[in-house]
Amino acid sequence: MPSEKSIYAPDKTLFKNAYVSSFADYKEQYNKSIDNPEEFWGEITKQFHWETPIKYDNFFRYNFDIRKGPIYTKWFDGATTNICYNVLDRNVRNGHGDQIAYYWVGNHPDDYSRLTYKRLLEEVCKFANVLKSKGVKKGDRVAVYMPMILEAVIALLACTRIGAVHSLVFAGFSADSFSERIIDCGAKVLITADGVWRGEKFLQLKSICDQAMEKCSKHGHNVDCCVVVQHLCRVTSPNRMQEHKKVYMKDGRDIWWQEAVADASTSCYPEWVQAEDPLFMLYTSGSTGKPKGVLHTTGGYMIYAATTFKYVFDYKPNDIYWCTADIGWITGHTYVVYGPLANAATSILYEGTPFYPNNDRFWEIVEKYKVTQFYTAPTAIRALMKFEDDLVKRHNLSSLRVLGSVGEPINPEAWMWYYKLVGGEKCSIVDTFWQTETGGHVLTPLPGAVPMKPGAAATPFFGVQPVLLDESGKEIQGEGEGYLVFSRPWPGIMRTLYNNHDRYESTYFSKFPGYYCTGDGARRDADGYLWVTGRVDDMLNVSGHLMSTAEVESILTEHRGVAEAAVVAKPHPVKGECLYCFITTTDQVKFDAKLLQELKHHVRERIGPFAQPDVVQNAPALPKTRSGKIMRRILRKVAVNDRNVGDVSTLADSSVVEQLFGGRPENA
Ligand code: WT7
User: Fold this and answer.
1) How far is the CA of 79 from the CAs of 51, 258, 275, in angstroms?
2) 406 lines ligand 1 (CB under 6 A)
3) Domain of 553: which CATH number?
4) pTM of the predicted structure, to 2 decimals
5) Is 432 in the pocket of ligand 1 (CB under 6 A)?
6) What is the pLDDT of residue 62?
C-alpha cells in the first residue's frame, strides 16, 4: 500500500493543456485569489450576465467574528442577475443551443434520452409558466422530491427562473422526514414523480408524498399543489411481474406534469434577483435532532459552482462529464446541475445503481459515452472493488482523464484501486473535501497542477483560507493536527440557516470566534498538504450520508420499549461507518428479536433506509460519569471490541464496561 510519502504527479501528456498546469501556476493564482479577490473573481464574473452590474467598491463584505456583531457574508451585493438565464439563455446565445446538456441514462439499459441546451431552455420556460400559474412567486419555497430524471433538473431551473427557492429532499428520505422539511420551509407546492426503479427496487414516490402531505395537514400546513411526473409508463420495468401500481391523484391538488406543460408557453422572461437573494435551501443533519436548512444565495454560489467545476474537473469543450451523486444532495445541486451547466458542459444523468443489471454498469456507461470526468463516492468505490477486476478491465475506459471522490476521506486502498484499475495510472484523482454548507469544493488538488497523495484533500481552492486550530483556539503553524476552520468567506459559502440565524451563528461561528468551523479535523503534513481526518463532533457518515448520533438516539427513544439509547459510529468496510446502537429497555419490555426489528424499522421510517442501524445491542446500563454524561469513548471501544478503554476512573459504575463487552451481539 502507498505510504504517506507516496506521491503521484499528474500525467504530463493528459494535462499539458490543463487550465492550471503546474504547482507554481496554482500557487500564483491562489495567491492572487487571496491577495486581490476583487481582481481574481472580478475577471470571472465578467463572463456572466448581470442585469444590474457589480459595483467594485462593494465587491464583498463579511463579518466572521461573533464578538464584533452578527455574522454575515455578502458578495456582489446590489448587482442583479438570474442563474437560470446564465446557465441556459447565455449558453444558447453563445452558440451552444444544439449541444447536448444531458444524456439521460435510465435504470434499465434500454432506456435513454438526451436534451440539448435549446430544448432544456424551452422545457424550463414551460414549467416555469406552470409554476407561475399555480401562484408561485419570487421568494416562495418549492419542495422537490424527485428521482434522477431530466424533469428534476427542469424543475430546479424553473424555480430559479422565477426567483422561487427550491428545497429538494433526497428521494430516499421517509415521509416523516420529508413532511418535517416541507413544514419547516413552508412550501405550498411540491414536485415529484409517480415512482422510480432503482435496480430491482421499486419506489412509490407519489405515495410517500401523499403520506408526507397528510402529515403536513395534521400539523396545519397544507400543500396547495403537487405536480407529478408520469415516469413509470415510459421506462422498462426490470421486473416483469410488476403489478400496475395505480397512483392516487387528489382532485384540486394533484396535477400531472405532462398535462400541465402541454400548452404552456416556451418563453418565460427571467426574474432578475439580487445577488444576495436566496437561490435554494437544502437540509443537512445537525448535532441536535432538528435538520438545518442550509441557505445559499444567487450570485456567489453561481460564480463558485462555475469556477470549481471548471478548474477541479478541468472541463474542456467536447468533454463528457459524469457525476453519479443524487440530485437530492449538495453534490447533485452543484456538480450535476449548476456547475456543469454554467460551463456549457455535456453531462450524464444516471437514474440507476452501480449494480444493475450487472456490477459493471458504471464502467459500461463510461465506455459507451466516452466519459472524460467521472465523479463518485468512496463508498461506491469500495463496493465495486469487491468484485473481480475483470468487470473493470473488460471495458475501454481510456477516455477518462479526471476521477473525483467526495463524501468522506478516501482510504488509500480504495484510492489505489481507483487510480490503477479505473484510471489506468494516468488519470488524476481529485479528492474533493467540501460540505453542504460550503456550496462547492474547498479543499482539493487541481488535476493538472497538484501532485496527489492517496487520501489527502491536499490544497485549498482559490479564495479559500484554511486554518488548523488547537483546542484553545490557537493557530497551528506547519505540521500538526487540529480543528479545520476557514478564516474568510469564499463566494459559495452558505449565508444562513433558513429562519434560524442564531443557530447558524452558534453552530458554525461560536466555538472559535473569527472562523467558520467545519466540524472536521485535519492534519497538515511536512509538505503542507491537508488530510481531513473526519468529524470531531457527534456526527456519523454512513455511505456519505451525514447524520448525528443525537438524531438517531432521539428517534430510538420514541419507542415505548426504549428507556435510553446511545449511538456511536463503527467503522464499516464499505459504508465507511455504520450505526452501532446501545439500548436500555424499559422495565415492561424485553430485549428480543421483535424489539430489534421494530427499532430498525422505526429508524427507517423516521429517517430513511440509509439510516438503518447495523448493530443494536442490549445495554442494561450505559457507561456514565458521576454527573450522568454518557462516555461515548467507551461505547466506541465496545463497538469495535477493543478492550483498551483507557481511563475509566470517572465512571459512576465501572462494572458496566465488562457487562457491555460481554453483551456484544453475534453480528457485531
Ligand atoms: C462532510 C460533509 C459535500 C459533499 C457531500 C457531503 C465529509 C466530504 C470529504 C473528503 C474527507 C469528506 C466531511 C464533511 N467529507 N468530502 N473528500 N474527505 N471528508 O456533504 O453531507 O454536507 O457532508 O462529509 O466530514 O464535513 P455533507
Assistant:
1) 7, 36, 6
2) yes
3) 3.30.300.30
4) 0.94
5) yes
6) 98
